[in-house]
Every structure is written in structure tokens, then in C-alpha cells.
Design brief:
With 281 residues, this protein is an alpha/beta fold. The chain has 11 helices and 12 strands. Helix 2 runs antiparallel to helix 3 (97-120).
């Protein structure tokens, strides 16, 4: 995968496009492309969330002119390594427990709102993924209708190692889309699935050659443009309901678990790790 072209990453707007510090989007030929490029591996912290919220607000005006949305990463490491655990840990250290938990709940509610907007958008949404697709990054992909995976992609929920569960909507969306055996395997073992396994269990719709996910996603978006839009919207609403009640329960469970000493110890170990990529299994 290529890296971001040599452009300043300060915020800019131009009609149907935006370029921020963590991500950009543009509408072209009926397809919205949302690109992630925050080093080291698109961790989802306050900066990324702020810009994702801008995208969610912009989507209302963009979607009448679009039939598809593609989300992808411009970084070689992969699609997204998940939540920004370093930011989460340092924020927690400076707060009283009650204040910290309120902050965690607020962050989760905000990111759930963004992902629910993507999940329910009247477009066909495609995650074009490669490399690391972990934790919150996996949950972002699960909000999309289709996942097209580079053969080098790996999917994982490592939250169990921190004493947590996924908190960005991963459990309800996995339960909606896959059999319980697969869900329990991912959640309870913390191990990763490669793209071949993900294709076998129905997690991804296509597995493609290395570096080919975005190209195939774009070709798929062109194919989608041939279909009647109202029919596509009706079909999506019928087959892909947003599991609102379970999503709310997930936030409650995550917050109940987060304040325990074992979680703080796990975060501390992660933050102090000298590994180049401590999120890897």
C-alpha cells in the first residue's frame, strides 16, 4: 500500500472533500472514499474521533449524490490497530475514577454514534482492509456492509488481554453477522484470524491479492452503481438492522470492567512496552 502523498495534513475543506490530520474523504463519480492515515497505525483516539464525527455529519449531505462508501488505510502497517490505548491510559491517570469513567462512557457513546451512522447509511459501504485489523479497527470494518481483504490481513479482538471486551460495537455486530462459534472464538481466545480463515467463516466477502483491496473495492463500487438505488437501500434495511439495544449493553459492560485494577495494569504494561508494534499477538 502506498503512503500518503506529500501534502500538508492540516484541516482543509473543498466542496465534497476534506483533509484532516487523521483522515480524509472525497466524493468522486458517486463513491465516497474515506482514507485513514494517522501514524503509527490509525489508532482511534480523540483526534480521529473528532474527524470521524465531522465525516458522519458531512455524510448526510454527501449521500444523496453517492451510491457507495469505501473506507481504507493509506499506511503500510494495516487498516487500523484499534483504540489509542496510550491516550486512554494517560487521560485516566490524570482523573479521579468517577470522572475517568464518565470520560470513557462519553468517548464510547460518541464513537458508537459515528459507527451506527456508517452502519445504517443508505449507501453500500465497503471496508478495504490489509495488514492489522484489530480491536476498534475491526469494529470499524464490521460497521461496513462488505469487507474486502488483502490476503495479508489479520483480524483480532485483543481486548481480553487487558481485562476488557470490545467497546466500539464489535460484539453485537459480530453476533448479527456470524455464527456463535466464530464469535466466541474471536472474543474468548483473543487470537487472530488470517484472511483465508475470515473468508471461510463469512467474515469477509472477498479475499484478494496483496495490495489489491482498494482496487477491487473501487471496481465493486462501479458495479453497485448499475443497480436501482432505492432497491439497494430497501434490501440493506431488511438484511442489516442495527442492534441498538445490544450496543447500549456493550457500553455498560465495558464501563463496568474498565475501572478494575487489572485493566489499569494491562494498559500500563501496553504503554510501557518497547515492542515496535505492541498490539500484535
Amino acid at each position: 500500500m502506498r503512503t500518503l502523498q506529500e501534502q500538508p495534513r492540516g484541516e482543509s475543506h473543498s466542496g465534497h472533500s476534506f483533509r484532516g490530520q487523521a483522515l480524509s474523504w472525497q466524493l468522486k463519480h458517486g463513491t465516497i472514499e474515506l482514507a485513514l492515515y494517522r501514524e503509527p497505525c490509525n489508532e482511534l483516539g480523540s483526534l480521529a474521533l473528532d474527524e470521524l464525527e465531522k465525516f458522519a455529519r458531512a455524510l448526510e449531505s454527501l449521500q444523496p449524490e453517492a451510491h457507495a462508501l469505501i473506507i481504507y488505510s493509506e499506511l503500510k502497517c494495516g487498516f487500523c490497530a484499534g483504540a489509542d490505548l496510550r491516550e486512554l491510559y494517560h487521560r485516566w491517570q490524570g482523573m479521579a475514577k468517577a470522572e475517568g469513567l464518565r470520560g470513557v462512557r462519553d468517548f464510547l457513546e460518541r464513537i458508537h454514534k459515528v459507527l451506527n451512522t456508517i452502519d445504517a447509511a443508505p449507501l453500500t459501504t465497503i471496508a478495504a482492509v490489509h495488514g492489522v485489523v484489530f480491536g476498534g479497527g475491526f469494529e470499524l470494518a464490521l460497521a461496513c456492509d462488505l469487507i474486502i481483504a488483502d490476503k495479508m490481513a489479520r483480524f483480532c479482538f485483543p481486548e481480553l488481554r487487558l481485562g476488557l471486551i470490545p467497546g466500539f460495537g464489535g460484539i453485537p455486530r459480530l453476533k448479527r453477522d456470524l455464527g456463535n462459534g466464530v464469535v466466541r472464538d474471536l472474543l474468548l481466545t483473543g487470537r487472530s484470524f488470517n484472511a483465508t480463515k475470515a473468508l471461510q467463516v463469512g467474515l469477509v466477502s472477498q479475499m484478494v491479492g496483496e495490495g489489491e483491496a482498494l482496487r477491487v473495492a473501487r471496481a465493486t463500487a462501479v458495479q453497485l452503481s448499475k443497480f436501482d438505488r432505492e432497491t439497494a437501500i430497501a434490501a440493506k434495511r431488511f438484511i442489516k438492522p442495527v442492534p441498538q439495544e445490544e450496543l447500549r449493553q456493550e457500553i455498560d459492560i465495558f464501563c463496568d470492567l474498565f475501572g478494575r485494577p487489572v485493566v489499569q495494569a494491562g494498559l500500563k504494561k501496553f504503554v510501557e512496552s518497547t515492542d515496535a508494534q505492541p498490539y500484535l499477538p
